[in-house]
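Workshop exercise sheet. Pairs work together: one partner reads the sequence aloud, the other fills in the structure field after running the prediction. Swap roles for the next sheet.
Pair: D.N. / O.F.
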Amino acid sequence: MKLTILGSGSPEAYARRASSGYLLEVGDDKILFDCGGGVFDNLLRAGYKPSDITHLFFTHLHSDHMMDYARLVHAAWDEGGAPLKVWGPAPIAEITEGYFGPDGVLSTDLRARAELPASQQVWTSRGGTLPRPWPAPEVVEIEPGFTISGEDWELASCSVPHAQPFLTCMGFSVEAAGKKFVYSGDAGICDDLTALTRNADLLLHWCYRLSIDTVHPAIADLSPSPALIARMAANAGVKRLVITHFRVHMDSPESCQSALRDLAEHFPGQAEIAEDLKAYSV
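Structure field:
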């Protein structure tokens, strides 16, 4: 498996880090986890086309995990790609219809592209046929505990504490060829995620605060520090730990060194901070 970081940041506007998005390649499949703002551009910078994505899984529906969803679907459609296969919690089907349905926010654009003679000529000159269908992602709404088998991989999920009861929030694991990758989504420490993480070859875990930050107790409970993440990963037998979802104030040299010290103190394996466009072999 190959993991490429397409977005390691937060909802905060930040030129150095896009919001959440992670590409996992397993055989011929290119699996995207979340699709926040800036992820689309980083997908192109990493050398991929929108139509390359075969599967998209959403951990939850905060905007910084899905802001580039419509852009990805629209661009893959414009390339003539196959309908994107999408899995995520409710109401992802309603959201998708709200973008691409007959009365969706993109309906005027899609009607013009499909029906204007000049646009039809552009489409057919690129190998398309008429009538031109609208984008039609294949959407499946899922709940924690969902599993699915790909051609050479197995995906499992669990519930993670984050923004309930307003959002359903999940973590995912993928196992292939004897290796295991786990993506926490946005998650507090919990038994279900710890069990899902057990013996992972690479754990990608969100980190929204530093140990030295002073935060509201609710944030502290739901947003583990690097030290807490490191201890959980060590207890779960994780081999490699990458923390992500860094906020702007966390990204100074001093703050990064604080996080790395915590990781080194509490986790015996290789541990680091994610960077946009960095790739890992799992």
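Discussion prompt: The chain has nine helices and 14 strands. What would you look at next?
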